[in-house]
């Protein structure tokens, strides 16, 4: 999966990404609350290196953190900045590849890479490049917060679809529906994802389909790659422990 095709997937999804959530504003606050609780301070300098339309970045900014957001999708990053301004918080954004972050060394107290973003990188070489960049831009004793799908369970079961998610607008407008189909590769680790959105259109349904590829990285394997990139004490924390919607890997940048 090329850099351009991943960017194309999220450029196309940028205007509708909030429809993945039953209530996106509630998601912003819940995820921001959970990540803030793990920061250990109230005024951290944070890089969200896969900010998308701002779900985690805005949530953290609402807690008073100084947040910068980057994303491979220029359209998603631009929307994140607009959504932050609408909520009267500051969020600097830019289009950037997490394997080549446009920041000086030791600039941030924390790096967030959430919502299953890292598994868009399909080789160990690319994952290592991204993790090395995240560590480079962290200050001594900085914190990495990285979330993925629960891949240990998914690798055992190899599901072929996700349940439908129904979005009901707060203003009482028409509902939309999202779901995914997964097509596993022969290696049993990579999978093609088809993302379906059903939108009401004059009494019928209009269907949008977008496609991308993921690498299902199990917890031990990803923790090993994080340690290989120079992080210290990588530890997985589960949703029932953190309140975050995905498993979170937490690691320190060291001194």
From TrEMBL:
Name the UniProt key words of this record, in alphabetical order: Methyltransferase, Transferase
Question: A single GO BP annotation from the record?
Answer: methylation
Under Gene3D superfamilies, the record lists: Vaccinia Virus protein VP39
Q: Give its E.C. classification number.
A: 2.1.1.-
Q: What class of enzyme is it?
A: transferase
- Methyltransferase domain spans which residues? 46-142
Sorted alphabetically, which InterPro entries does this protein's record hold? Answer: Methyltransf_25 (IPR041698), Methyltransf_Superfamily (IPR050508), SAM-dependent_MTases_sf (IPR029063)
Q: Could you tell me which Pfam families the record lists for this protein?
A: Methyltransf_25 (PF13649)
Source organism, top-level taxon: Bacteria
Is Magnesium one of the keywords UniProt gives this record? no
A single Gene Ontology MF term assigned here is:
methyltransferase activity
UniProt protein name: Class I SAM-dependent methyltransferase
| Organism expressing this protein natively | Streptomyces gibsoniae
